[in-house]
Design a protein that fits this description.
Elements (H helix, E strand, L loop, with lengths): L28 H22 L6 H7 L3 H33 L3 H16 L2 H9 L1 H4 L2 E5 L5 E6 H4 L2 H26 L3 H9 L4 H31 L11 H12 L2 H30 L1 H7 L19 H8 L1
Antiparallel strand pairs: 1-2
Helix pairs in contact: 2-12, 3-4, 3-8, 3-11, 4-8, 5-8, 8-10, 9-10, 10-12, 11-12
GO molecular function: transmembrane transporter activity
Subunit structure: The complex is composed of two ATP-binding proteins (GltL), two transmembrane proteins (GltJ and GltK) and a solute-binding protein (GltI).
Organism: Rhizobium mongolense USDA 1844
Length: 322
């Protein structure tokens, strides 16, 4: 027998050094040095910030739960929830219109998205707040006919309504594209199968397409929600008493500008951190179908070859039977 094919016996009482079960990644000194250096710099920076009196940490602690700050925080959270709900609802309608074969609906939705995504949000908020300059009164009239009802614009467009309208209409344009992308990510065969089972297009969209599209819609929607929390700070320019406006009103009296801005920064970071955790749970909820499909057993000797059922999707069959 050739010496190249001769197999040496394993040492008595020991494991074969060529056995991959005993293989392990080599210890990397460079990675340990890099981690040590990074943690050292971060610790040094944290120590400098914590011991810098110019940050005014006692002032931050004093005003962190101040009633004025908490009131502004509630306003920011309320604006975020209301604007996001309206924006998602309008965005869904706009996305459906963009995917429609009707040329008028498609064109109007595209024009809306083009305008509100192409102009700064701050300009839109100021425009809505000063709407009375263009239209002193808001009226409901019959075209070329009598006026049915009329209101003074200043009594209708308050800082609150201007903030809600500006934030919601701007958010709807972005949500429309997010939802449209999610709907396009669903295989077209899903809709065709649902129609073959006799489901209407609206029911197929509600029961089949949208639930599957949520896996692609939820992550960017979570990003939009976090962006909305920060975007509410823009309403301070129209005298809306949000979180930023509240801390500004305090440091205008105390002249503690940096500490009060840190109060707002810490609150924004705390809220966005909580939202990030919630977004992670929602993403895992809507991806549970992928986890189930990856755990399906494969036939012996055919690893990596999934079993493809010949029957239609049980979800579609169940929904069509209702």
């Amino acid at each position: 027998m050739s010496a190249n094919t001769h197999k040496s016996a394993s040492p008595p009482g020991g494991a074969d050094p060529r056995d991959v079960v005993n293989a392990h990644k080599p210890f990397r000194i460079d990675r340990l040095v890099l981690w040590t250096l990074t943690l050292g710099i971060a610790a040094d920076f944290g120590w400098i910030v914590a011991n810098n009196e110019n940050f005014g940490w006692p002032v931050v602690a004093q005003y962190f739960f101040d009633p004025t700050v908490i009131s502004g925080l509630y306003v920011s959270l309320g604006l975020t929830v209301v604007a996001m709900l309206i924006g998602i609802a309008l965005g869904l309608l706009l996305a459906i219109a963009r995917l429609s074969t009707d040329r008028l609906a498609h064109s109007l939705a595209g024009l809306y998205i083009w305008f509100f995504r192409g102009t700064p949000l701050l300009v839109q908020l100021i425009f809505w707040y000063n709407l009375s300059t263009l239209f002193p009164s808001i009226s409901i009239t019959v075209p070329f006919g009598p006026t049915l009802a009329s209101w003074d614009t200043n009594s209708v467009i308050t800082p609150m309504t201007a903030a809600i309208v500006g934030l919601a209409l701007n958010e709807a344009a972005y949500m429309a594209e997010i939802i449209r992308g999610g709907l396009l990510s669903v295989d077209r065969g899903q809709a065709e199968t649902a129609e073959a089972f006799g489901m209407t297009r609206a029911r197929a969209l509600r029961r089949i397409i949208i639930p599957q599209a949520m896996r692609s819609i939820v992550p960017p929607t979570g990003n939009q929600l976090i962006s909305m929390i920060k975007a509410t700070s823009l309403v301070s320019v129209i005298a809306m008493a949000d979180l930023l406006y509240s801390v500004q009103s305090i440091y205008n009296r105390t002249f503690e500008i940096i500490p009060m801005l840190l109060v707002a920064v810490v609150w924004y970071l705390l809220i966005t951190s909580i939202l990030n955790i919630g977004q992670g749970y929602i993403e895992r909820y809507y991806s549970r179908g992928d986890r189930r499909s990856s755990s399906v057993a494969t036939p012996a000797g055919q690893a990596g070859t999934p079993i493809v059922p010949d029957t239609p999707s049980p979800v579609i069959a169940q929904e069509a039977s209702h």
